[in-house]
């Protein structure tokens, strides 16, 4: 399991490094290099996604893009390193890793330069005029692999009989844990939002465009805050189930022993406190 974690994390670093390396090279080139139906030359992309929102202020684009990247990073880490951690789900985790690597490569451009560096142009049939970069290709391949994995590994992903899910077994602890996790995330997000709002107010000149930009930023941050809070709360329920689940299961096991029902004690996949299984066996030996 740890080997897969290191492999996926290393893959992110390598793909982002290669993407940035090619971007730096073509960013410094003035002439185009034609290879068959492909033309390699620097083209700035000022949009946030597929060229969208290219008309809004550069500072606003950078703040929104970086905040959205943070949300995607949180979602990626939660799925790949905490939720879907089974060895048999490597194909799905690989797809998500490729997708995140592509997002990270373009996010670095937006944060560092205010725009994305595209350098691959297609000059063939209906693809003519399409301009992209390595991060876009990696991101697209990751999406395709993720969708394929969701169907191919359907039974293994959703094997609910062996995974801690959104079930509530200790309401006070689970709701409190989830609320605190969502609250910490919300406070961090609000801190970024207040800083970004204040920065826009201070730097943008007074005009209708200024008010529109600030309004777009505030609405965008609010939507991201709501999505982030829901995701963190749900993850909190699942993680707290993994924490309290083994203790709850041990209590039921001991109660069954007291009632004369001798059975095997087995924790679920990805549960915390695996040492409880040995404790349960020792208790069972004493009961006999």
Estimate the global geometry from the Cα principal axes.
Answer: flat
Q: Give the proportion of residues in helices.
A: 55-70%
Per DSSP, the total helix count is 8
Instruction: Give a count of the beta strands, DSSP E runs of length 2 or more.
Output: 4
What separation lies between the terminal Cα atoms?
Answer: 36 Å
Strand-and-helix sequence, N→C?
HEEHHEEHHHHH
Question: Compute the gyration radius: what is it?
Answer: 24 Å
> Mean pLDDT, rounded to whole units?
80
Q: Compute the number of structural domains.
A: 2
> Beta fraction of the residues?
5-15%
The biggest sheet amounts to:
4 strands, antiparallel
With strands numbered from the N-terminus, the spatial order across the biggest sheet is: 1-2-3-4
- Low-pLDDT segments: none
Query: What class do helices, strands and sheet pairing give?
Result: alpha+beta
């Amino acid at each position: 399991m740890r080997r897969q974690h290191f492999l996926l994390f290393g893959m992110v670093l390598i793909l982002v490094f290669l993407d940035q390396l090619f971007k730096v090279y073509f960013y410094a080139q003035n002439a185009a290099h034609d290879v068959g139906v492909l033309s390699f030359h620097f083209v700035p992309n000022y949009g946030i996604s597929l060229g969208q929102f290219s008309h809004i202020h550069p500072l606003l684009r950078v703040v929104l893009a970086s905040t959205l990247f943070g949300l995607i990073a949180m979602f990626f880490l939660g799925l790949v390193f905490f939720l879907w951690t089974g060895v048999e789900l490597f194909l799905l985790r690989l797809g998500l890793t490729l997708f995140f690597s592509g997002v990270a490569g373009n996010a670095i451009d937006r944060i560092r330069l205010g725009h994305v560096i595209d350098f691959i142009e297609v000059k063939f049939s209906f693809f003519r005029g399409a301009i992209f970069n390595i991060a876009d290709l990696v991101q697209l391949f990751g999406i395709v692999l993720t969708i394929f994995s969701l169907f191919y590994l359907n039974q293994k992903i959703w094997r609910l009989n062996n995974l801690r899910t959104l079930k509530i077994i200790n309401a006070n602890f689970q709701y409190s844990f989830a609320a605190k996790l969502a609250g910490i995330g919300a406070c961090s997000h609000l801190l970024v939002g207040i800083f970004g709002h204040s920065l826009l107010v201070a730097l943008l000149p007074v005009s209708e465009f200024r008010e529109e930009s600030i309004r777009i930023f505030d609405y965008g941050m609010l939507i991201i805050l709501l999505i982030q809070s829901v995701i963190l709360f749900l993850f909190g329920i699942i993680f707290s189930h993994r924490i309290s689940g083994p203790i709850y299961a041990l209590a039921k096991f001991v109660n069954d022993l007291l009632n004369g029902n001798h059975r095997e004690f087995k924790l679920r996949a990805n549960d915390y406190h695996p040492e409880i299984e040995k404790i349960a066996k020792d208790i069972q030996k004493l009961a006999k």
